[in-house]
Amino acid sequence: MRPLPELTVENTAFWTGGARGALMICVCDDCRTAIHPPQILCPHCLSRNVAPKAMPGTGTVYSFTVNHQPWFPGMAVPFALAVVDVDGAPGVRVTAEVATDSPETVSIGQRMKVHFVQVEDVWLPRWVPMAQEKAQ
């Protein structure tokens, strides 16, 4: 089993938003800057008026890698990890595993939609290629 993130005041909305099917990204209510990883202080205007907001849950692959190394016992390989530019959150990229049986088909510019996998009290985001979304 992979290690799970530690839930904090700043990141709990991100790691539990999947329970509602929502990709939660912090946004500054003063300057509208999207912030990820989650923080309690806006890095742009230094406001503390920051709160998590639900994003559309779609985006475009900025970069990716296909992993062939089983880092934990029983880890299935190969698998793809993608860095995705999140729609509705300019400047925010979320890195997550791509849910696909064909990791070699992931490509830069490919459209993705987020789905979530619950592990204990955390909902891990996974990117699903939009052409395969109906199969998930």
What does this structure look like?
This protein has 136 residues and is mainly beta. It has one domain. 4% of the residues lie in helices and 40% in strands. The chain contains one helix and eight strands, in the order αββββββββ. A five-stranded mixed barrel has the order 4-5-6-8-7. A three-stranded antiparallel beta sheet has the order 2-1-3. The radius of gyration is 15 Å and the shape is globular. The two termini are 22 Å apart.
Features:
136 residues, mainly beta, 8 strands
How many alpha or pi helices? 1
Order of helices and strands: HEEEEEEEE
Main sheet, how many strands, which sense, barrel? 5 strands, mixed, barrel
Radius of gyration of CA atoms, rounded to a whole number: 15 Å
How are strands sequenced across the largest beta sheet? 4-5-6-8-7
List the helices and strands and how they pair.
Layout (H helix, E strand, L loop, with lengths): L11 H5 L6 E6 L5 E2 L14 E6 L2 E10 L11 E8 L6 E6 L12 E9 L2 E8 L7
Parallel strand pairs: 6-8
Antiparallel strand pairs: 1-2, 1-3, 4-5, 4-7, 5-6, 7-8
